[in-house]
C-alpha cells in the first residue's frame, strides 16, 4: 500500500476493524517513511463476466440503470432502485463466488424486482428469459396470477373461523 502523502511503497497496519456489517475491513495504517497515518477500506472484489468474455467489476449503478429502464413509467422511486441493487449485491456476494456471469446477475434481479413491481418484472424478464412470443408472456402472467391466488387462499385460511390463532 503506497502512502498517499509521500508515496512510500510500504505501510504498517496499526488497527483493523470490520465495517458495513462485516462486508469490508477498515484499516488504520502508518507510513514508516513520513510517520503519517491514513485509513484504507478493503472489500472483496466481485467480477462480472459479460457475454463477450470481458470481465469487469460488479457495479450497483449498472444494476440500477438496467432496472430503471424496466421501471420507466412505473411508480418506483430512486430509493426503491437503490435498495433493489443492494439486495442483488448481497445475494450475489452470498453465493461465495468471486466471478459471476452477467446472465446470472440478471436472473438474481428478477426476485426483488418481482416484489417491487410486477409490470417492471415482466418487462425485465422478457429480456433475460428471452421471451419469443405472446405465449411466453402469457405463461409468466399465468404464473403470477396463480401465485396471487395461492397467497390469497393462504391469507383466507389464516383468518378463517376456527384457525389456530389465539386471542389474548
Automatic annotation (TrEMBL):
Cofactor(s) recorded in Swiss-Prot or TrEMBL: Zn(2+)
One GO process term, biological-process aspect: negative regulation of DNA-templated transcription
Signal sequence residues: none
Zinc finger (unnamed): 3-34
MF terms in GO: ATP binding; DNA binding; zinc ion binding
Protein's UniProt keywords contain Repressor: yes
Keywords: ATP-binding, DNA-binding, Metal-binding, Nucleotide-binding, Repressor, Transcription, Transcription regulation, Zinc, Zinc-finger
InterPro entries per record: ATP-cone_dom (IPR005144), NrdR-like_N (IPR055173), RNR_NrdR-like (IPR003796)
Cofactor notes: Binds 1 zinc ion.
One Pfam family from the record: Zn_ribbon_NrdR
Domain annotation ATP-cone: ranges: 46-136
Family: Belongs to the NrdR family.
Function: Negatively regulates transcription of bacterial ribonucleotide reductase nrd genes and operons by binding to NrdR-boxes.
Protein name per the record: Transcriptional repressor NrdR
Organism the protein comes from: Sanguibacter antarcticus
Amino acid at each position: 500500500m503506497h502512502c498517499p502523502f509521500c508515496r512510500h511503497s510500504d505501510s504498517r497496519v496499526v488497527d483493523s476493524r470490520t465495517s458495513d456489517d462485516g462486508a469490508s475491513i477498515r484499516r488504520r495504517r502508518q507510513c514508516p517513511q513520513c510517520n503519517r497515518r491514513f485509513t484504507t477500506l478493503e472489500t472483496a472484489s466481485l467480477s462480472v463476466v459479460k457475454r463477450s468474455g470481458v470481465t469487469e467489476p460488479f457495479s450497483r449503478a449498472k444494476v440500477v440503470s438496467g432496472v430503471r429502464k424496466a421501471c420507466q413509467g412505473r411508480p418506483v422511486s430512486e430509493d426503491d432502485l437503490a435498495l433493489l441493487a443492494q439486495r442483488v449485491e448481497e445475494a450475489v456476494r452470498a453465493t461465495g463466488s468471486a466471478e459471476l456471469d452477467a446472465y446470472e446477475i440478471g436472473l438474481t434481479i428478477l426476485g426483488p424486482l418481482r416484489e417491487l413491481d410486477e409490470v417492471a418484472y415482466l418487462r425485465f424478464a422478457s429480456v433475460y428469459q428471452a421471451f419469443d412470443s405472446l405465449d411466453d408472456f402469457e405463461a409468466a402472467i399465468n404464473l403470477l396470477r396463480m401465485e396471487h391466488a395461492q397467497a390469497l387462499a393462504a391469507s383466507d385460511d389464516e383468518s378463517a373461523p376456527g384457525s389456530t390463532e389465539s386471542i389474548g
